[in-house]
Write a structure and sequence with these properties.
rod-shaped; about 10% strand; 2 domains; 4 strands; about 70% helix; alpha+beta; 9 helices
């Protein structure tokens, strides 16, 4: 291999490496943007599923009736989980909160047996809570329901605002990412504009000329997507190792979807950018190639 050929090959590899690194970094940014949306949704569901309703039980209810009622509640579609809180347990919590025993002051234990139910996230809103409240109050052996409507409304409003901000931020970053990858592909094809023009002059069709560019850039998109996913996974692994609790917000299904979207976007954006870039030079006159 001659020195000129070695220099040409080295330049080609350097250009490919630079393009791959550039696209990988953009896909990492895009991947983390998509991940933030999934984390936002997971965090929203996590917070909502921590909301609970205390189902206060009648004084004359038996242990068997409590067990049957709890099974009945667990079978309802809006209930994620439940736990029984006895009078004694409730009294201990009152002592912690008040700093003194209410039974000594009143002469009796004011606490009631109750079942604390945690809601599925899609039911943790004002409209659903009104329906749930009516349904539960119609059930026998239930004397009252306790839940903080104001707190639930405040949480839902704040989560809604956060979701809107994340969607706007994601749209902006998606636009920036597409523009950066498009410019990277255009620069890589710019150096081959005379080859494209020569192929056009000898009678090659547009599809024949575009095919190798689209294929090579799609492969670069796949490789860049895999590298980006490796970087994203490493970042998540480090974050989870240092801070923990990420698994309660983000699951493997969400991660698989994010990784799939990153690779798909890598293929789609690079292929589309290559088509538009090649088409530009296919439409251009030979004389104009010297002035761009």
């Amino acid at each position: 291999m001659s020195k000129k050929q070695r220099i040409s090959k080295s330049r080609f590899l350097n250009a490919k490496l630079t393009s791959t690194i550039s696209i990988t970094l953009v896909l990492v940014l895009l991947g983390f943007t998509i991940l933030i949306l999934f984390v936002g949704r997971g965090l929203s569901n996590y917070v909502k599923e921590k909301m609970s309703i205390n189902v206060m039980l009648s004084d004359d209810i038996s242990d068997a009736q409590i067990n049957n009622l709890r099974k009945q509640l667990d079978g309802m579609p809006f209930v994620k989980s439940s736990r029984f809180i006895s009078k004694e347990e409730a009294k201990e919590q009152l002592i912690k909160d008040l700093g003194e025993d209410p039974e000594e002051l009143l002469g009796y234990n004011p606490a009631q047996d109750c079942i604390e139910i945690f809601l599925n996230s899609e039911y943790a809103n004002s409209d659903s809570l009104q329906i749930i409240s009516k349904k539960l109050k119609a059930t026998t052996n239930i004397s009252d329901l306790l839940y903080q409507q104001d707190v639930i409304d405040l949480i839902n409003n704040n989560l809604s605002k956060i979701t809107t901000i994340l969607l706007i931020l994601s749209a902006i970053l998606l636009f920036i990412s597409i523009a950066l990858i498009r410019n990277t592909i255009r620069l890589s094809i710019y150096s081959k504009r005379f080859i494209i023009n020569t192929m056009k002059l000898v009678g090659a069709t547009g599809g024949f000329i575009r095919k190798p560019f689209v294929r090579s850039n799609a492969l670069m998109g796949i490789f860049s997507g895999l590298l980006a996913n490796a970087i994203i996974f490493s970042g998540l692994y480090y974050f989870n190792k240092e801070f923990g609790s990420l698994s309660s917000i983000l699951n493997w299904t969400d991660l698989s979807i994010v990784f799939g979207i990153v690779i798909a976007l890598g293929i789609i954006i690079t292929s589309t950018a290559a088509i538009f870039a090649v088409n530009r030079y296919l439409r251009m006159n030979t004389d104009n190639l010297f002035y761009i």
